[in-house]
């Protein structure tokens, strides 16, 4: 089958009567109905005055409408999903930075985005769900207009724009073309051997690349189905597992850990599950969690490595019978992957350096930011900002985020290495090692720790435990015991800026 180069092409993969989208309490949406919805939506968008290359901001809660809106709108405009939890000031920044031509919200929405858009003179369209509609069915209601570039999108039109996190600098706009997102969906579907018989339980936020591409588009690329939940909830996860009988789900490590925390009281749902594998991405999965997930569910845990600029996936551990290794994010799974030194030379296997990529899923470059592009691209390779090493078999092990490496008096310390040691302590549930300012050394090592229920541990005891396994310079000088570690909007634990959040900087 010829690889899809537009989302319209991708939607053609599914058989007419097969289920594309499902959701709790809703009738299923077939592929024939989803294709018809996409066609009607492009026409409706053109009638609202927007077309190809126009950025349309989407502010919708997780669920089938958000999944369907992303897919259908992208067939005719540039989609820009935004976190519904943003404040008015954040919406103002993103809507202006994107030069949004339209804002799409749920009918009757009280989101501050609506008032902000009207203040900025951006038209607002309401997404209306007809009574008794199947999962994802909607119509658009708004003021009429004339689109400058009507009709369906082409391969080199931008399907999706997202911002980088902006933790250490101003957020950058990442444009992803239809070729980019379709290539990534194909890479993921191929690597996971997805077929029309597969069903994904979608629990990731749909304003994030992980859920949009790994869960939704890769499934649709395979003619498979997606169960669109209202978002992740460890209390309802096992009921959804029993009701929808998915063959896989994909999540970030904190979600997996929350699932494990409730696994013991849901043994029946686990025993009857038809999972074929579990996928983890967007943050490093502690090897201990991988081992426990595989033991609990009796299926392989496939850890993948992704980022927005690559339309999500760059590397992935393969399915059995090929080997997978705890602590490795696998082999190249789409783009080429290499290791580069600071001068731009590619390094041999076994050498530590910056992970670089190139391939059809990689963004053509940040929008309107030549300085960032000059820094990000070297000899056609995109610099990920991650430090890692490739072994002789092509397996990639990440040693840290370059910006997260702790520089203690010139000694470079990987916080991931310290995390893995601390997680071996039987009382530790979660940990994030991070840098704190030091008056003489520049930076020192600190750790935020969540203990397992019913356990106790002192700072000194944990320091002694780490000191038995690692050099003294890597032992956290400050340990904070917390009920919960602050997370980002997608559920990822964040090292950068944590010292300030916890009052240590």
Task: Estimate the strand proportion.
Answer: 25-35%
Highest CATH level, the class of the largest domain: Alpha Beta
What would the CATH topology of the largest domain be? Rossmann fold
Low-confidence region ranges: none
The side-by-side strand order for the widest beta sheet comes to 2-1-11-10-12-13-14-15-16
Report the biggest beta sheet as strand number plus sense, adding barrel if it closes. Answer: 9 strands, mixed
The assigned CATH architecture of the largest domain is 3-Layer(aba) Sandwich
- Please state the CA-atom Rg, rounded to the nearest Å: 23 Å
CATH homologous superfamily identity of the largest domain: ANL, N-terminal domain
Percent helix, as a range, is 25-40%
Structural class: alpha/beta
Give the arrangement of secondary structure elements.
Blueprint (H helix, E strand, L loop, with lengths): L6 H5 L7 E4 L6 E2 H17 L7 E5 L4 H11 L3 E4 L6 H10 L4 E5 L5 H9 L3 E5 L10 E3 L16 E6 L9 E5 H14 L7 E4 L6 H13 L3 E4 L5 H11 L3 E4 L1 H9 L5 H6 L5 E3 L6 H11 L3 E7 L4 E5 L14 E2 L3 E5 L12 E6 L11 H7 E2 L2 E10 L5 E6 L4 E3 L2 E3 L1 H8 L5 E11 L3 E10 L7 H9 L10 E4 L16 H4 L4
Parallel strand pairs: 1-11, 3-4, 3-5, 5-6, 10-11, 10-12, 12-13, 13-14, 25-26
Antiparallel strand pairs: 1-2, 6-7, 8-9, 14-15, 15-16, 17-18, 18-20, 19-20, 20-21, 22-23, 24-25
Helix pairs in contact: 2-3, 4-5, 6-7, 9-11
């Amino acid at each position: 089958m010829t690889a899809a180069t537009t989302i319209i092409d991708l939607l053609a993969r599914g058989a007419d009567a097969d289920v594309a989208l499902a959701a709790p309490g809703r009738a299923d949406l077939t592929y024939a109905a989803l294709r018809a919805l996409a066609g009607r939506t492009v026409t409706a968008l053109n009638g609202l005055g927007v077309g190809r290359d126009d950025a349309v901001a989407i502010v919708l809660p997780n669920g089938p409408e958000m999944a369907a809106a992303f897919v259908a709108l992208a067939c005719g405009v540039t989609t820009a999903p935004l976190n519904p939890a943003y404040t008015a000031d954040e919406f103002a920044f993103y809507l202006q930075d994107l030069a949004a031509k339209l804002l799409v919200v749920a009918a009757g929405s009280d989101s501050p985005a609506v008032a902000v858009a009207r203040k900025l003179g951006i038209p607002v369209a309401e997404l209306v769900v007809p009574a008794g509609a199947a999962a994802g069915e909607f119509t658009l209601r708004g003021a009429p207009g004339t689109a400058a570039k009507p009709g369906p999108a082409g391969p080199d039109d931008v399907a999706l724009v997202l911002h980088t996190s902006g933790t250490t600098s101003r957020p950058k706009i990442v444009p992803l073309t239809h070729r980019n997102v379709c290539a990534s969906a194909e890479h993921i579907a191929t690597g996971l051997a997805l077929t029309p018989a597969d069903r994904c339980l979608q629990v990731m936020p749909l304003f994030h690349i992980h859920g949009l591409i790994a869960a939704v588009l890769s499934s649709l690329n395979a003619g498979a189905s997606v169960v669109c939940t209202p978002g992740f909830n460890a209390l309802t996860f096992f009921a959804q597992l029993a009701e929808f009988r998915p063959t896989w789900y994909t999540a970030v490590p904190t979600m997996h850990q929350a699932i494990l925390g409730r696994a013991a009281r849901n043994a029946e749902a686990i025993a009857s599950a038809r999972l074929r594998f579990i996928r983890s991405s967007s943050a490093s999965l502690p090897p201990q969690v991988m081992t426990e997930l595989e033991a609990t569910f009796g299926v392989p845990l496939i850890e993948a490595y992704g980022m927005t600029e690559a339309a999500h996936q760059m590397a992935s551990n393969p399915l059995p019978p090929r080997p997978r290794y705890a602590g490795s994010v696998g082999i190249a799974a789409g783009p080429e992957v290499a290791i580069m030194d600071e001068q731009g030379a590619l390094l041999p296997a076994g050498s530590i350096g910056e992970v670089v990529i190139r391939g059809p899923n990689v963004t053509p470059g940040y929008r309107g930011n030549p300085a960032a592009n000059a820094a990000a691209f070297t000899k056609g390779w995109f610099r990920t900002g991650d430090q890692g090493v490739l072994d002789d078999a092509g397996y990639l092990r990440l040693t840290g985020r370059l910006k997260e490496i702790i520089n203690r008096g010139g000694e470079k310390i990987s916080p991931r290495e310290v995390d893995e040691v601390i997680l071996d302590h039987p009382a530790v549930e979660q940990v994030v090692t991070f840098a704190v300012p030091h008056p003489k050394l520049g930076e020192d090592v600190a750790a935020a720790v969540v203990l397992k229920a019913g356990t106790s541990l002192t700072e000194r005891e944990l320091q002694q435990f780490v000191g038995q396994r690692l050099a003294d310079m890597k032992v956290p000088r400050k340990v904070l015991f917390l009920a919960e570690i602050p997370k980002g909007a997608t559920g990822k634990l964040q090292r950068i800026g944590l010292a300030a959040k916890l009052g240590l900087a």
